[in-house]
Amino acid sequence: MTDAAAVSIRNVSKTFGKGGTRALQSIELEFQPGEFISLIGPSGCGKSTLLRVIGDLIQPTDGEAVIGGKSAHQARLDRDYGMVFQEATLMDWRTVEKNVSLPLEMMGWDRAARRDRVRELLVKRNPRLAGRQPVVDDVCVAVGWGQCL
Question: What is the sign, positive or negative, of the torsion defined by CA atoms of 21, 148, 126, 118?
Fold first, then answer.
């Protein structure tokens, strides 16, 4: 693999949870600048997991993603790329708080500052959520999409 690649996936593996669900195993890929890439496969084969690793939304268990010669994390912090989701949607694996804090997380805010700001926005400034603190800690799919919006 070369440093000239737009994206290099180097021996990336990802295992989730205590049960050891392996989503990715020893993935090696390289995308050159200007290439158009499609990830095709059945549901549950790891396409979204790989994209989350590339986008620095999750960390691989092993290996690394290199974007333009930088770690995925550094490339994200340097705003070397942007993300466009297929649909305007919430990430159902994240809590309400973590969905709202994603832009702050992408900008490098520390965890405590993100939590304080999100709690201020969701709880103090939103009368609909007054007295409903547990909703902020729930995963969106558990509380219903209308409550997450």
Answer: positive
Beta strand segments in the chain, E: 7-16, 21-31, 62-67, 70-71
109 contacts: CB under 8 Å, gap ≥ 6: 101, 117
Q: Rounded distance, CA 14 to CA 43, Å?
A: 16
Q: What are phi and psi of 10, to 5 degrees?
A: -115, 100
pTM to 2 decimal places: 0.60
pLDDT digit string, tens, across residues 59-103: 999 999 999 999 999 998 888 887 766 666 677 777 778 888 888
Contacting residues for 67 by C-beta, under 8 A, at least 6 apart: 6, 7, 54, 75, 76, 80, 81
